[in-house]
């Protein structure tokens, strides 16, 4: 388990996340957008928020590593320092950019802090709901400063209809396999992987699964799930963290992730393996 970050580092992160939420809301409905890949967009707000974080990081913690969605996606490398050693920040300035760009809800800022490749602290802010999820390694998970109730090992029978957060990539893999779709359950695609993970942690979703999830999608939410008593890993059930030097995830390689309650994680992973759908992209 990664050590808890110092108090000044936690304060630095919280201040930024709150400012990023304000920046998202200030440009919501008016931010210029452009295509950056098939069925994917980026807005001027994405770039502005990531640039603001880099400016603050260089001033306050210049020795820390950094991985940002827009920087890494554009340059194909992970920041200016070797992120697998020491402290490394992982930022998605707007997770759910397509929703954001077209005036829909379901977007957030996601900021994770890793120590030697393992999650140490996490923040996910949904500014429209004014809902901040946070966690520190070994310190539990919170929602708006209040501890999240620890997840039971499995969903109660009365809650079998509890939704599962997924993605279009999941539909491509699972849609043609009736047995796998039955195991997945009532799928919802909300457009923000980080919020899917937080909804699992908060007991609003049974699971979250995404074959195309990237490090900036999951670095924060993975810790929030784990600190709420859930399990997070790859679709085949194997672990993701700590990330070693040279792991493709540092530079945008797909993780292929699964998060669920502890007693259901293995069975869901087994369903993906049995269907031959567990390989990440």
Automatic annotation (TrEMBL):
Read off the Gene3D superfamilies from this record: 3.40.190.80, Fructose-1,6-Bisphosphatase, subunit A, domain 1 (3.30.540.10)
Binding residues for Mg(2+): 69, 92, 94-95, 217
Which organism does this record belong to? Phycisphaera mikurensis (strain NBRC 102666 / KCTC 22515 / FYK2301M01)
Q: Which cofactor does it need?
A: Mg(2+)
A single GO molecular-function term is: inositol monophosphate 1-phosphatase activity
Q: What class of enzyme is it?
A: hydrolase
Q: Can you say what this protein is called?
A: Putative inositol-1-monophosphatase
Write down the superkingdom of origin: Bacteria
InterPro entries xref list:
Inositol_monoP_metal-BS, Inositol_monophosphatase-like, Inositol_monophosphatase_CS
What EC number(s) would the UniProt record show?
3.1.3.25
Keywords, alphabetical = Hydrolase, Magnesium, Metal-binding
